[in-house]
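Q: I'm teaching a short session on how sequence maps to structure, and I want students to see two examples side by side rather than one. Could you give me a first protein with its sequence written out and its structure tokens following it? Keep the formatting plain so it prints cleanly on a handout.
A: Of course. Example one:
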Amino acid sequence: MYLKKLTLKGYRNYSNAEVTFSNQINVFLGENAQGKTNIMESIYVLAMTRSHRTSNDKELIGWDQDFARVAGTVEKSSGEYPLEIILSKKGKKAKLNHLEQKKLSRYIGHLNVILFAPEDLSLVKGSPSVRRKFLDMEMGQMSSIYLYHLVEYQKVLKQRNAYLKQHRKSGKLDQTYLSILNEQLAAEGAELLAQRFSFTRRLENWARPIHSDISQGKETLMLEYASSFSVTSETDKEQLMNDLLKQYKKHEQREKEQGTTLYGPHRDDIRFFVNEKNVQTYGSQGQQRTTALSLKLAEIELMNEMTGEYPVLLLDDVLSELDDERQTHLLKTIQDKVQTFLTTTSLDGVKKELLHHPRIFNVRSGQIEMESE
């Protein structure tokens, strides 16, 4: 899979831009605040229908523009097709093959991307919400079934929390209605738990040897899906659903008092262990960075395993954050395998011998100019 062409109109500081890419490595060179990260963000938006930098779509529209348009042409083993996202003050439209998709969940997954930016180094030591977002965003690209159940779970969770808050204010509660919400939430939650556990195991299978290579065989990485429920490969969805229902019943009074749902996959986490020690608590910064890098590289292989296509890799100013050894491992892993977009202020310090025939673009004040090859 690779992105052949990108067209921007009214997007952040790009009034009009059209770029044709190499299917190998594309480098965006320029000083800070010129628009390099905006390009990376636009590719992410084209894939995921949302930004990784803001939850407010209006921020993506140029200050003097009525709307923003991001369009691209994707090449896969099955053929070529156009994608398009249009953002306006009224909302957003997503088009696949020129046809508007009424549900965004039917659009996501047609361009798979993995983003690696400096803030992703906090994946390991950051808050549990960072890791839950990581799970949901990556799994949502790989599995339309997971994305469907995630959307349904979030919808019912919102209804249940609103009802619990309403009870806290009024003191009135329809137990039958709450039971219906419990059943619906437990059914969707069981699906998420089962799929997240499976994903974590598969991700570990790819990440462990990568981590071992980077650490020169000195470290062993383990991943654990951390839930308030006992989840194993033998646990079936019916058991998970029953466990969720028991938790709702057991903590009903507490949830009524607090006006929120206290248990379920929206409160879960992933734990990382290096040589059987929790790297989030006891690991050095180097171990935490190696773990984060191993996870990102493992994602590339897992996405290929699950979808039959390698994803597009976005490296937003991350090489400067990696030492020579980790940078070398990253560039060797992606070499001649994954279409890669890389932003940097300078190629000084980047191992150029590992960048095979890069297509280089100079970025300045919202203008993109390709260097002669």
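Q: Perfect. Now a second example for contrast.
A: Example two:
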Amino acid sequence: MTAIPLSVAPMMDWTDRHCRYFHRLLSRNTLLYTEMVTTGAVLHGDRERLLGFDAAEHPVALQLGGSDPADLAACARIAEEWGYDEVNLNVGCPSDRVQSGRFGACLMAEPDLVARLIGAMREAVSIPVTVKSRIAIDEMEEWPTLERFVRTVSATGCTHFIVHARKAWLKGLSPKENRDVPPLRYELVHRLKQEFPHLTIAINGGIRSLDEALAHLPALDSVMIGRAAYETPYLLADADRRVFHDASADQPDRHAVVAAMADYAEEARRTRGTPLAAISRHMLGLFQGLPGARAWRRHISENAHLPGAGPEVLIQAAALVRRGRGGAEDDTGADGAAAA
């Protein structure tokens, strides 16, 4: 399978189905990931709530957390049955909860186990099975750890590795600190591609713009953007043209995106009882950098959670953002407020 050159990272509490639908309105081609879902949740929980997605979200991948080969194989089969385009194993999350369940970044210390997990998943499905990891954990030396991990796991036939270019410190740093404190070592991910040219290697961590993403792509197969895609989502609006080289792709108008999300919110409320705030929270950064962006955020924050709030809240909030000539947003005079 040809690598998709740009994706949005799986992010807990962020990349749910509403966020992914919103992101898809901004880019037709970018690969979207679910939040991490544990094998126990998939096997015993509410699958419609955990796994349900809109057909418009394709291409979309399910990220799993677990450490039992049989459970992961069963969940991979379920992912394929539900129509996901890829299933990904989380070997990068540093949270205490994940460690206590023996999955996430702590698995980097057990590459032979990860190889068994990936082997079981690959035997169970025909869709791609991929791995997302760190470069190392705790006191482990970075390059030998990363090289051995990829060499061991790739022996199963797994060809696609997404590497967050930071070490994870499971002792001493919080999950939030692990996203920022350990230094980025992009050069190790580039070295990985040089050492394993036959593998698909994607880089993740600290990439804030399409310019930064494009700087990696000549040497790597793919770039994964995380918080920047969530906090300033409109950066995805130029991805189809710049990253996927789709000359026919026009930047979506932000107000048109709001109108589409208002329709989506009404449908979600009618069919699933979804409260507006569950959807609107993902949209707060849409007008970041434009006059009225602060008013947009404030109106949503003050009204979307109220009983009976409907999609009109989004339309009212968007009306507070000034348009330039011809109906396009005026990009001058940014208010400078950080995305909520």
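Q: What should students look for in example two?
A: Point them to this: The chain has 16 helices and eight strands. Also worth mentioning: Confidence is low (pLDDT under 50) at residues 324-340.
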